[in-house]
Fold this sequence. Notes:
The structure holds 2 protein chains of 2 kinds.
Chain A: H1 2-24, H2 28-54, H3 62-79, H4 83-105, H5 110-130, E1 136-137, H6 155-177, H7 179-189, H8 191-196, H9 201-227, E2 229-230, H10 232-236, H11 238-251, H12 257-276, H13 284-299, H14 304-325, H15 331-338, E3 352-363, E4 366-377, E5 381-385, H16 392-399, E6 407-412, E7 415-416, H17 422-428, E8 430-432, H18 445-453, H19 460-474, H20 489-502, E9 507-511, H21 519-534, E10 538-542, H22 546-552, E11 555-560, E12 563-568, H23 570-575, H24 577-584
Parallel strand pairs in A: 5-10, 5-11, 8-9, 9-10
Antiparallel strand pairs in A: 1-2, 3-4, 3-6, 6-7, 11-12
Helix pairs in contact in A: 1-6, 2-6, 2-7, 2-9, 2-11, 2-12, 3-4, 3-5, 3-9, 4-9, 6-7, 6-9, 7-9, 7-18, 11-12, 12-13, 15-21, 18-19, 18-20, 19-20
Chain B: H1 10-33, E1 36-43, H2 50-69, E2 80-87, H3 92-105, E3 109-114, H4 118-131, E4 135-137, E5 152-154, H5 159-178, E6 184-190, H6 193-209, E7 213-220, H7 228-237, E8 241-245, H8 249-261, E9 271-273, H9 283-286, H10 289-292, E10 296-299, H11 308-318, H12 325-344, H13 349-358, E11 386-391, E12 394-399
Parallel strand pairs in B: 1-2, 1-3, 3-4, 4-5, 6-7, 6-8, 8-9, 9-10
Antiparallel strand pairs in B: 10-11, 11-12
Helix pairs in contact in B: 2-12, 3-4, 5-6, 12-13
Amino acid sequence: MMQGLRSLLPILVFTVLYAALSLSVTNSYYQLVMTLVPVWAIFGLSWNLLSGYTGLISFGHAAFFGLGAYAVALGQIYFDLSPWVLIPLAAIIGGIAGLLIGFPTFRLQGHYFALAMLAYPLAILYVFEWLGFQEITLPIKRDAPIAYMQFSDHRFYTLLALAMMLATILLTRAIERSRFGMALLAIKQNEAAAEAAGINTLAWKLRAITLSGAIAGAVGGFYAVVLLVVTPQSVFGMLVSAQALTVAMFGGVGTVWGPVIGSAILIPLAETLNAEAGSRFPGIQGVIFGLAIVCVILVAPEGLFWKVRDFLRKRSGPQKMATQTAPDLPIAGSTLAAAPSPRERSQGKGDVVLEVRHLSRSFGGLKAVQDVSFKLRQNEILGIIGPNGAGKTTLFNLLNGFLRPDSGEILLNGREMSGHKPHELCEAGIGRTFQIMRPFQRMSISDNVVVGAYVRASTDVEARRLAADAIARVGLSEIADRIAGELTTKELRLMELARALAGQPRILLLDETLAGLGHDEANEVVAVIQRLARDGMTIAIIEHTMQAMVRLVDSFLVLDHGAVIVEGEPEVVTRDNRVIEAYLGKKWMAHAPH
Amino acid sequence: MGQDNRPKTSLTRRTVLSGAAALGLSTVARAQQLAEVKVGLIVPLSGIYTRPGQVMRMGAEMGVEHINAQGGIKALGGAKLKLVVIDCGDTTEKAKNAAQRMVAQESDLVAATGAYLSSFTLAVTEVTERAELPMLTLSYSDLLTERGFKFIFQTAAPASRQSELGLPELMKLAETASGKRPKTVAMLMDNTATSVATAKALKEKIFAQEGLQLVVEEVWTPPLSDATPLIQKVRSARPDMLLFMPNAVSDAKLGLEKINEFGLGQGKIPTVSFSITIAEPDMLQSVSTDAVQGIMTVVANWGSKGHEALIEELKAKYKEPWMTQNVISTYGDMWLMKAALEQAGKADRLAVAQAFRTMDDGPSKYYPGGQLKFDEKGRRVGAGVVIVQWQSGVPVTVYPTDLALAAPFWPKKS
Lengths: 594, 414
């Protein structure tokens, strides 16, 4: 809590300073510029909430902004309502629009999503032109100006805008630190992994776009009050959507500071250029403004905030790093010795946790998985091996819901689970790691792992506890605060393992967890896995390297061309001719011991 | 002016302030040397509306020059007019910001004119109204003077009125020249505010009043990408008259090219427009003089009889081939400001505004029809229209007769 307050300090100080500055300015033009800075910052923050955190770029935030602006203008013209009432209403309209737009559009990803979003404001623009709202003005209220948010002193607008900005920043930060923010960040890094970690990505994305739309709608409504004239171009135009992107990308994507920094620099800069250069060389302001943005994006592609932060971190970094790396991982020696061999566990006798019956899946003519059946018992370690392209990862993708099987059944504790979504399967107790690691680079180990904990935790505190517990189980507690970008491959593998563990799965699916590790490192990871098994975890592991596996697993399932060729204990399987043939080719058969 | 040098945003703010301070100081210095009265011109000088803005500036500069050459403001001891030019950019927000800058930093302005596009004028006048700065404008959207504002003065006839005034004259012209009244009309328009307002007045009232039947009505959103479907409809309907209402030169070009391609040009179907777009000098860069021959347009103002010397000067000085509404109206605005200053007797914006309100200076020299007098809405009393016709590569005034530089002809169906 104290830490939360302390990190709020810069924001509060900034707001107070800005307010003091704006109160001391009496020139109405500077006052207007000072009002527009928070307005565009809020719009940037709204964009950031969706696109900055989820990575789904929206080129169409003007849709929400414009709806808000028109709601306020038309509400005052036709119903004589005050903006004090209409701006909250604009937020609701923006939110609903977000939900309606998000629902169909989230089926798309990447560039397709961005392009589809681009279309909404442009389409709505024509609707408003068709409706005959080419130009509307907010009626002047000479009798009751305050009741209609019409201040003769521009400073009130600045203070109002500032209050809205502060509220938006606090909201964004609250989200950033909650499971909401974690879910969004996880989606940005790897939507599939997020889904596998138990995050209902569609639901979170819809929440994000609804909230983002609501903020954009509110600020659009306020903008109408400031501008007094609303035209389709001025609120739905391409330039409006671009403004949100520009301030956020200039300042820094995925942080509350980004849009604020971007807006505080770009808006006064553009105005100064319009005022100073524009009257001497008309048009030059656009050129200079554009060049400035291009230069900053080239130098700091993620925005000024991150560039400055990385720079400061580098300067104070070296000492910190030294102290952090000093205590090496304790697991290597101590736990390896303590780890029991497979034989010491009650292998193969527990209840069946997962049963797979006749599972098949084809891609066109390729039968990636055909008629695979096996049972996974409580506390067992099953090694799934086979040459490249044998269908191992496809089998995992079927088990955790990334793919739907063409036929067959997946019974989890006797319950049919095939065809369920990944986050549902995760909730049901299937955790997994990935062959290609997707750590959340800028987040600490704790934050990376906590993403996986939310599926089990009802509160943030509980999630933190589960995460800390999972980190302890893989032996990363000492370095839990380190940023993922600074970790070694082994540490990343363990971190991924912890992320899967944080959701307290009953079954762990490990996809080539030992890949890319040296001999000693692999042993360390193996020791961790053995310890998990000893503590009662049921594990299925895909691996190429037979050597490490033989010591680890209770039984093998050997796949080739998508079908099971052998199943059994390691000693038996490694001597089986069909396995040797699949791995090494026919000519090695002769050398095989019979 | 906010004197503030807090470190937070001082970098950008300081540049703004120093620029402003320098401007302010130099004004004071000059004012002491020579009595000057500052008037503002706020027009687009950057972005896609630059060209009309530049042309308006020519008119304003010529006006100021002529007034000063003839002894300045006599009531103020021969004080000279000084033109302050402000770029209002190409968006509504930029226009609003520029207007705020104008009233905040040019606090000694006594009046202003300009803004061009009605959306910009709407935003600019929201600011000038609150700053109590009288603003003249040639923008003719009805909305401008329907907001109950006290500091806006519209010199042109409002859009709804223009069609009301223009169409009956066209009908008379057709009847005199061709011997029969047009009975059917096709209307092709873009959906900008001006066109929509004009079309509304036409459809709701004037067509019926003139006994015209609307046989084709098509609306496009600029920019027009292909005029073929529009013109095809016109060809199959064969109306007696075509109202073609573009507001962008590129749209006008596309439409006219198609009209000629379909063999409807050069008077096969008499074509009429309702804005100055179709008579802009830029048109000749895109289409041949043959393609525009005979086309008429109803405009709020145009270089006419009595302006010959001005037109010559404009040609010589700025290489403009003819005098559009933008030049002549802005030129006239300078004289109107002078008249108000003479009447007010002091360089004070409130006094000047009051002078505009109470002014009654008889017929106008630089605006068609009516008088130099404004009603309670700020509309010029009796403001008329001008009909301009392309004749041998030049759009010339053909109506009203007392202003006409050439006789009109009605293109006949052949």
